[in-house]
Amino acid sequence: MAAAALTREGGEDAFRRLFRFYRKRDASDLRGVVDFSAPGDQVFRSQLSISAVSDQDAYRAGLQPVSQWKAYGLSGYPGFIFIPNPFLPGCQRHWVKQCLKLYPEKPNVCNLDLHMAPEKITDLWGQSKEQLRRKGSSKWEPRSLLEKLRWVTLGYHYNWDTKKYSANHHTPFPSDLAFLSKQVAAACGFQGFQAQAGILNYYHFDSSLGIHVDESELDHSQPLLSFSFGQSSIFLLGGLKREEAPTAMFMHSGDIMVMSGFSRLLYHAVPRVLPNPEGTALPSCLNQALSSDLPVGSVIEHSSDEDWQVCAKYLQSSRINMTIRQVLAEGQKFPEESGTNRKGQATSEESYHENSKAKRHKPNTVS
């Protein structure tokens, strides 16, 4: 296969070659991409800690009981767990709405902070919803502010210049997302997990995420959790060095990935966003209605029809990914730093995401 042949060529590192291969808009050879909906030889079933999460807590987080989840590992990647969509019907909508309507608001940080005045980016949702609702299929229509969003940081805000977190740039982590993360981590054997930092990535069909390792957290004993919503993507998981050829896999709406242990510090990237495999405007799991009978204490909220129309229009050409991590071990503190500057928290929208229309920008290695 073409993808396999690329890994044997000299010169450019193996990861970069496959990234470029899958990045091509006309890349048609996807036979080597692992599909967890039809697991092949490299895939095996992973055991979950069913008793670590009560059914009630799973319901409160918008998840099926853990006993009903399917979880898979990959040969050669100990600590990697892939969980195909374990969300209850309609519950993905809550997280999509939070990522578009609530989480981008202050005091959280986003890529727009760098090149727009603060008063221009208040209420991104309010400024964008009518434009999104009326949006047609033309590529020449001006983009709404929400469509210009590339990343949002939560909790401990990652500094893109220093590639560090710091104690003096922290805002409260969203309680609903912390609860969801706690249940998923516990089901995967990490009952002490604390959601302390999050990076939300907003992709369009011309977006990609450069080759990088998530190593800025001071505690690597806890997993990295990844949640995907909307259109699909190809995810590349490599090794400890870029010379090691990565494994390509599909990620679809609702899928969860957990990188822990050996796999916690592996190179990875997203070279390409793809239309969902059902061939419809949205995957069917996003068209399911939320139950009217939510459990007591549920973190899931009903979305109005008006709000969901805006979210659905956005997702017709987009994908949202939430990555959650624990920064500090229990009782651990940040090392003393001098002259920390909060102005360096944002970077250009293209230095984290690659865009096919911005060829001059090379992928960045970031957390």
UniProtKB/TrEMBL annotation:
Entry annotated with the keyword Oxidoreductase: yes
Keyword flag Transcription: yes
EC number(s) from the headed UniProt entry: 1.14.11.33, 1.14.11.51, 4.2.99.18
Cofactor(s) it depends on: Fe(2+)
Span of domain Fe2OG dioxygenase: 191-328
GO biological process, one term: positive regulation of gene expression, epigenetic
Quaternary context: Monomer. Interacts with DNAJB6.
Location of the protein in the cell: Nucleus
Comp. bias (Basic residues): 358-367
GO annotation, cellular component aspect: cytoplasm; nucleus
Keywords, in A-Z order: Dioxygenase, DNA damage, DNA repair, Iron, Lyase, Metal-binding, Multifunctional enzyme, Nucleus, Oxidoreductase, RNA repair, Transcription, Transcription regulation, Translation regulation
Name by which UniProt lists this protein: Nucleic acid dioxygenase ALKBH1
Binding-site residues, Fe cation: H212, D214, H268
Domain of life: Eukaryota
A Pfam entry, by short name: 2OG-FeII_Oxy_2
Molecular function in Gene Ontology: broad specificity oxidative DNA demethylase activity; class I DNA-(apurinic or apyrimidinic site) endonuclease activity; DNA N6-methyladenine demethylase activity; ferrous iron binding; oxidative RNA demethylase activity
Cofactor binding annotation: Binds 1 Fe(2+) ion per subunit.
Region span, Disordered: 331-367
Principal place of residence: nucleus
